[in-house]
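TOPIC: backbone geometry
CONTENTS: sequence, structure tokens:
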Amino acid sequence: MRLNEITYTNAQPVDGYGPGFFRIGGQVHHSGVLTGPIGTIRWDGYAQVDDLLALADVVDVLFIGTGAELTHIPADLRNALEEAGLGVEIMNSPAACRTYNVLLSEGRRIALALIPV
């Protein structure tokens, strides 16, 4: 078996998560987070639209983790993101973290907005 070390060149991976926290690039965040090539910042949820829209020129797809369960995001938020040219994928936060890490290791232009589990 051949093992290859994964390197992340344009953003930091999600190292772990648990009730009320995310660990990204070794740093623990006790809130929702937005992470990607712009760095990692606090994200307070769907009302914080401007930070998501600012990603339109830097990423192709935004993953939104909706917490422990998969839920719909507000239709006006989805419409605003898609009108800005962002692909939007909605999933629960654990699945969003895993998917983000895999695509990040492939060098994809992605970002991740997470609500804690």
In short: Residues 21 and 36 are 17 Å apart (CA to CA). Strands lie at 14-18, 21-24, 27-29, 33-36, 39-42, 61-65, 87-91, 110-114. The longest strand covers residues 14-18.
